[in-house]
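Reading a protein record of the kind used here takes little practice once its layout is understood. An example of such a record is reproduced below.
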Amino acid sequence: MDKITRRSFVSGAVAAGAVAASVGATHLALAEQASAQEWDDECEVLVCGYGAAGAACAIEAADQGASVLIIEKAALPGGSMARCGGAIMGSGTRVQKELGVDDDSDKLFDWVNTCVNQNYELCPQDIIRTYADHAGENVDWLMDLCEQYSGRELFDVAMAVENEGAKDNSATGDNGNGVTSGCLNAVGCEYDKFGVSKEEAVPRSHWAYSPGGAPNSGPELFDPLHDDITAKQQEGLVRVEFGTALKSLVTDDTGAVVGVVAVADGSEVRIKASRGVMLATGGFCAADDMKMRFCQEALGYTTYMCYDCTGDGIKAAMEIGADLTNMCNFYPIEVAQVYQYDTKYNDVYNSWLDMDETGTMNVPAHNMAECHGGVRINVDAQVIGVDGNVIPHLYASGNDVGTNIWGVPGNYPGCGCYVSFSIAFGRIAGANLAGEQEGVNKKVDADPYTADDVVLYESTDGETKGSSSEVDLSGAAFADGTYTGNGQGRGGNIGVTLTVKDGKITVDKITQDGETQGIGGYEAINDGTFAKQIEAAQGPDIDGISGATQTTDGVKEAVTDALSQAVK
């Protein structure tokens, strides 16, 4: 008897029809709204969020000739970057070369891929490859912006501590985090876990210099982005609206994003974006409703990050059929921490927690940083739908993205990777948005992680039998009996037991070995949603569960496996 051994009968004709029906209905409803409404404002590129990802996107899009509008929910800019420790990761940078550090993008790719994906499948290798290829040049880019607008060096190379001098963290004076002395080191990851000693680790964490002597230099790291956007505002190239929160995305009848509905001063405003929209709203670390739905393990933790990060971008994307991934990845912080910044930034950049007159921000114990789940993107920073296709004119980076390089606790690549990932795909998004044309949707290949051509069928003796296209259950007649099939879900095997009687299919049970509690697919198994869909469809042609593509795929695979045994 044949069995399915890889991810299933998922996305081809079966998934395309089901998903198109559900997602297309949403697009159509929104398209009718778009065609009838009057816009309150208009731009070419609309950036939702003024943190690292949003700022980088806005700068790049404006540099490429697009008119840009940034909307920011908070009253001040900066997001998570402006209150971080002050590091950005990169390889092959001018700082590394000046300090004699041998590094390049290939070595960075190998390290991040090993760190993030060892024992996991958290990030596609093409995303890691793209990140590694851009990380170093973005460090240099920030250095150039800092010199251009402030006339100073972003990193104090004269104080830098090379890897050789940082053995046992003894040279940094601050347990190795590099804040109090030096501008380059290798910290933030459990190197020994991956067979790399601290002495062997390549220093890639570049720490911004605080002229005021503050131990945390996130504001200084964000300054170049803020200064560039301020200059572009004065030139009329970029506009910024604070106190304006994304509510929903508006699409046309092709499913392309054409604008947003935002909320400012309690009123809705409709903003047209003729080239597209960038999501950079900071994820959902401060949203208990999102945690309840996707990551109940995080409910016991408050966040010391921005309290404006309530999942606005992710929720808006979900409403138009965006796929989600890694929704229950987060970093618990069990011990109290103290951050201290130059006091001149107290009222310049958004603060995660209240700061006193000394610039001190106290982070209580049992806290958390970001939630790391979000939308799936491709290497062009385009958002992917549940059907595996690009949602036209919609881009994302930063904490709104689930296909990221941040790993899980213990698999974190190192200090500064948050910032460098956000900037890398922010700039990629900006360049691509500037090249979009109103009413024209770029044709791109379907996402390889959901395409049906990755499916192989194998007999019990190991002989490959072909692809999923050879399993066609349409019009098939099934013999009475009880049949069990298996499929691969997000976290392990999914089993489906079916009974066929007088040609009618009923579901006896659905089991799962490792789906994440709180995720939509887990709930759909346990509350009977999948069983009802299978019985209604009388087969595997069921609707997708937004944000739970892998679980849905595993259920379809298991149903196909079971019914293939019942064919007369």
